[in-house]
Amino acid sequence: MPRRSPQQAQRPDPALSREIREACTALSIAYARAVDFRDYESFVELFTEDGELDTGRPLVGRTAIREAMRHRPDELKSRHVLSNIFIDVIDADTARGISYLTLYRHVGPESLRGQPIEFSGPAAVGHYEDQFVRAGDGFLFSRRKLHLTFRRADKF
Fold first, then answer.
1. pLDDT, tens only, 36-75
2. Structural domain boundaries enclosing 63
3. Sheet containing 58-60: order of strands
4. pLDDT on residue 91
5. SS3 letters across the chain
6. Does the pLDDT at position 29 exceed 50?
7. Which of 34, 40, 60, 115 could disulfide-pair with 69, CB 3.0 to 4.6 Å?
């Protein structure tokens, strides 16, 4: 029987790995839904107590993340479209991942009217680099860092 490397020995069986990938993918999608629909309390709960969110300015801990969300303008409307989500299961309690982001964003009184807003394309394109940890029955972000590849200056 071939010997397994220490890394291979720690990796969970395929069924558990699939469950972890599904949980982490769902967490990424929950992030986009919560921020876009302004459900900031649910948004904050997607992170560990000491979790880090870095979208250009690192926020460490739920308190800092909550405070930043509180200052998000009412006139900001966004849609975070995630694709190419890849989750690498490290062991039964940790994973890392990447999610491509296409960001649609508008700031202005039109955002409050509940009507479609004219736009000329995405505000930004990039990816999130994620670290996930098991918390209770599920997974949370221990770190989420945004890397922008393309950005429209007039949208930020």
1. 999 999 999 999 999 999 999 999 999 999 999 999 999 9
2. 6-155
3. 58-60, 47-54, 138-151, 124-135, 94-107, 76-91
4. 97
5. CCCCCHHHHHCCCHHHHHHHHHHHHHHHHHHHHHHHCCCHHHHHCCEEEEEEEECCCEEECHHHHHHHHHCCCCCEEEEEEEEEEEEEEEECCEEEEEEEEEEEEEECHHHHCCCCCCCCCCCEEEEEEEEEEEECCEEEEEEEEEEEEEECHHHC
6. yes
7. 40
